[in-house]
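User: Let's play a game. I give you a shape written as tokens, and you guess the letters that built it. Ready? Here's round one.
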């Protein structure tokens, strides 16, 4: 055997054992055949019986992993080569054009050129010899891009998956060209977002060409915003101030109508929760207080616009107490139910600015109370730098006493001097109410015998209301009428309709005057001329005192409607003459106006003259609009309150306060033009002077006054047990806390609760709940029940004591005060055992506060019903019947 497989060529194993041992002793290593070695070469054997073993070739490149690595290396090389050839960041626009023209994979029909140092790649279409660029790609010198389709710029968000930022490779440009061609050739390939973006751009181009205040601009801006909101997720939308204002106005007018709009889901509108946040900014407890709100409003007014008239009037409200957000609304400071609200409004004498600055609930308004409220309002207005030039009230008895006894010290004057500022304040009885009083006097007394008045009634006159009635009867069957404004309602008004200015002006109108003069020339109607002369005098007076715009006289072509431009103006002389005329008429004892109407009209004429002269001569006004020196603005605000409350006449105090907050929100957002961010910044910088010290002091006094001697009866205990279970369930539902449930709810509802103080009651307090429970009611724990019992005892004792009850009802937030009282009177001795983890669960929830608030809600809702019921028992008294008849329009004159 000459050779073998798997060992060295020199065979050591074939030697004899003795020789092997000798070699080993000489340090020569032993060699062994492999187990799989097979002899293959034999000496003296035929060639075909032997074969030569070749050296095996290496198999390192024949494995799958090695082939994959080689392929990956080859692809990396190709990719690197492609990137190097595809990179165009170092090229100029001209070189890019050459590369693009040499490209063989470009989409068809594209044209390439350089325009103003920018590469333009475009698709053009010729229709009826009119070329139109269907789409284009512009590559600027800095390789930034702009893409257009149908002559509209495509937002970069529509192709940012291909090109983000400047153009860097040729493949990006080729792929973008393919996409532009797809957008043009197949409009259905465009996404909804793509179409919306194009529509927004087109609308924006249109609005840029319109005036900002135009109706078209407002409508298109609304559509543009709706499209923008449509492309955003619901919780990622940011609404503009204009849309918030529009939505808030709809919501304020009718929450039901706004909910219908939302349910239809055809517009992207803010939720009602978002809109209520706007009103919350005007809540003095959480946002701007009254002075901060007024400072924000006045910041947009100049010095002349800050000259205001203070209007004082009252609005009748339903004698109803309502509980909302921890407050019992509808109560006066002394705890009685309010029947009227005394409102103070400021109105600029040169602009449209007006605001309610204070609202005081009253059960019985007196001049003394009105004076106290006035002093508070005057201090507030001085602190926010308003300049009060006049006070306007109606001709009610209380207002006359307020002027005479408290401002003029017993003798009515046209002005008083402010002790703080030293400025005069003119006292005005509202001219609008004066006109209504003349109308009512004329309609009820029928005949007026007027003395002479120079230049207006040189011979005096005799006015008879019956002449107007005859005029109406004469023209009743006519198709066309001269006295078209005279109606049966104006001649025979109901009691509540006598307060309508519209009815008064329909009698004192130019058409009625001219018709009387026309028919007065006929036989048997000569007395109508005297009635026409009296109407002409009152019409002239009304035209002078009711001017609210500087151009009214030119528009109506009537000089009596021009503003007062000088203290020597003939219109002021007319007011002086009319005041003298009224004095002569009253002194003559001839049939005429009532004593109160004579006084108010005469005083108003002289006060308007003095106020106008002061504004023109001392304050430097160019003209005075006497229509701004009347109280029509507050009457309009009362109408707005009623409209916001469902167009009801007899609204509650809560509805008035909520309506006022809504109007204030609109005033800041719409009329003053503040954004929500600006209002929020003002809230952050607002340093409220109010604190809880007075409430804490009241809670201390009430807690010390309690004796805690009242205990619930067996019946009361059963109801308390049932209610406390509902309160515990409410707390657990809100907190969603297992520890709260463990402490507030009985873990074993199948067993009766063992109460430590159950001996107090005749039988178990759980009987009522067990009788009505069908498995869904919650049984309270001992702690919950005993805390509810203690709250009941405290509330019952306060409710039974008139002084304590008055103190609680007079609080600004009754629930907050009651919680503080319970903090002071709830201790270990009163409950009979230690409190649960100091009234907190292991997650930090204030168990006692959460329970006490809910229990007080339950107590208060029943209490306000009792207060409302007791207050309305007086409606049946004889003294109230006349007012009820007036407000219900049941009596017919």
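Assistant: Ready! My guess for every position:
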């Amino acid at each position: 055997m000459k050779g073998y497989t798997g060992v060295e060529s020199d065979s050591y194993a074939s030697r004899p054992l003795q020789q092997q041992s000798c070699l080993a002793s000489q340090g020569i290593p032993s060699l062994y055949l492999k187990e799989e070695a097979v002899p293959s070469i034999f000496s003296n054997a035929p060639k075909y019986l032997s074969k030569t073993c070749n050296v095996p070739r290496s198999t390192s490149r024949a494995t799958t992993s090695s082939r994959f690595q080689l392929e990956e290396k080859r692809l990396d090389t190709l990719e690197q080569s492609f990137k190097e050839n595809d990179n165009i960041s170092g090229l100029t626009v001209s070189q890019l054009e050459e590369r693009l023209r040499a490209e063989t994979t470009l989409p068809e029909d594209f044209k390439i050129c350089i325009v103003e140092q920018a590469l333009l790649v475009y698709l053009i279409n010729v229709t009826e010899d009119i070329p139109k660029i269907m789409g284009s790609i512009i590559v600027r010198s800095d390789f930034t891009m702009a893409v257009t389709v149908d002559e509209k710029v495509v937002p970069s968000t529509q192709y940012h998956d291909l090109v983000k930022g400047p153009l860097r490779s040729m493949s990006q440009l080729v792929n973008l060209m393919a996409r532009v061609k797809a957008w043009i050739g197949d409009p259905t390939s465009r996404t909804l977002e793509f179409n919306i973006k194009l529509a927004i751009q087109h609308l924006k181009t249109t609005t840029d060409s319109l005036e900002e205040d135009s109706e078209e601009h407002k409508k298109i801006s609304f559509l543009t915003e709706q499209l923008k909101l449509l492309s955003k997720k619901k919780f990622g939308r940011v609404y503009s101030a204009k849309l918030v204002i529009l939505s808030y106005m709809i919501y304020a007018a009718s929450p039901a109508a706004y909910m219908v709009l939302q349910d239809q889901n055809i517009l992207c509108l803010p939720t009602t929760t978002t809109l209520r946040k706007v009103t919350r900014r005007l809540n003095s407890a959480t946002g701007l207080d009254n002075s901060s709100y007024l400072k924000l409003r006045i910041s947009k007014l100049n010095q002349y616009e800050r000259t205001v008239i203070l209007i004082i009037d009252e609005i009748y409200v339903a004698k109803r107490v309502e509980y909302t957000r921890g407050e019992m609304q509808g109560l006066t400071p002394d705890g009685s139910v309010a029947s009227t609200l005394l409102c103070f409004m400021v109105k600029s004498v040169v602009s449209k600015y007006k605001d309610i600055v204070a609202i005081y609930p009253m059960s019985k308004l007196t001049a003394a109370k009105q004076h106290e409220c006035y002093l508070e309002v005057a201090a507030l207005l001085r602190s926010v730098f308003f300049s009060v030039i006049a006070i306007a009230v109606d001709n009610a008895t209380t207002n006359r006493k307020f002027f005479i006894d408290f401002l003029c010290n017993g003798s009515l004057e046209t002005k008083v001097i402010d002790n703080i500022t030293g400025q005069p304040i003119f006292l005005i009885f509202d001219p609008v109410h004066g006109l209504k009083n003349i109308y009512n006097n004329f309609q009820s007394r029928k005949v007026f015998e007027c003395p002479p008045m120079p230049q207006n009634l040189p011979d005096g006159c005799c006015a008879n209301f019956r002449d107007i009635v005859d005029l109406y009867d004469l023209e009743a069957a006519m198709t066309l009428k001269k006295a078209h404004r005279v109606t049966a309602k104006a001649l025979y008004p109901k009691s509540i309709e006598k307060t309508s200015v519209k009815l008064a002006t329909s009698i004192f109108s130019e058409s009625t005057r001219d018709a009387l003069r026309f028919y007065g020339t006929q036989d048997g109607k000569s007395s109508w001329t005297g009635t026409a002369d009296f109407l002409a005098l009152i019409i002239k007076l009304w035209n002078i005192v009711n001017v609210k715009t500087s151009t009214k006289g030119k528009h109506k072509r009537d000089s009596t409607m021009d503003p007062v431009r000088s203290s020597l103006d003939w219109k002021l002389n007319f007011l002086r003459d009319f005041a003298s005329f009224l004095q002569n008429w009253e002194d003559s004892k001839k049939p005429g106006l009532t004593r109160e109407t004579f006084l108010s009209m005469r005083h108003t004429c002289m006060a308007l003259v003095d106020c106008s002269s002061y504004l023109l001569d001392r304050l430097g006004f160019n003209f005075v609009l006497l229509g701004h020196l009347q109280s029509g603005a507050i009457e309009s605000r009362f109408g707005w309150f009623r409209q916001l409350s469902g167009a009801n006449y007899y609204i509650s105090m809560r509805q008035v306060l909520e309506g006022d907050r809504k109007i204030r929100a609109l005033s800041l957002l719409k009329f003053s033009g503040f954004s929500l961010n600006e209002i929020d910044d003002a809230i952050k910088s607002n340093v409220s002077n109010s604190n809880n010290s007075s409430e804490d002091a009241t809670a201390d006094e009430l807690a010390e006054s309690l004796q805690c001697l009242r205990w619930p009866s067996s019946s009361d205990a059963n109801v308390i047990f049932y209610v406390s279970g509902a309160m515990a369930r409410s707390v657990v539902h809100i907190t969603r806390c297992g520890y709260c449930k463990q402490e507030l709810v009985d873990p074993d509802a199948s067993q009766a609760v063992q109460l430590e103080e159950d001996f107090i009651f005749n039988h178990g307090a759980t009987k009522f709940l067990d009788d009505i429970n069908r498995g869904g009611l919650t049984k309270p724990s001992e702690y919950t029940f005993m805390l509810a019992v203690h709250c009941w005892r405290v509330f019952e004792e306060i409710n039974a004591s008139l002084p304590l009850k008055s103190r609680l009802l007079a609080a600004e937030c009754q629930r907050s005060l009651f919680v503080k009282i319970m903090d002071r009177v709830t201790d270990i001795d009163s409950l009979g055992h230690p409190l649960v983890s100091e009234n907190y669960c292991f997650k930090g929830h204030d168990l006692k506060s959460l329970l006490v608030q809910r229990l007080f809600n339950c107590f208060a809702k029943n209490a306000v019903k009792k207060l409302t019921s007791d207050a309305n028992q007086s409606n049946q008294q004889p003294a109230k019947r006349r007012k009820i008849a007036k407000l219900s329009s049941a009596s017919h004159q």
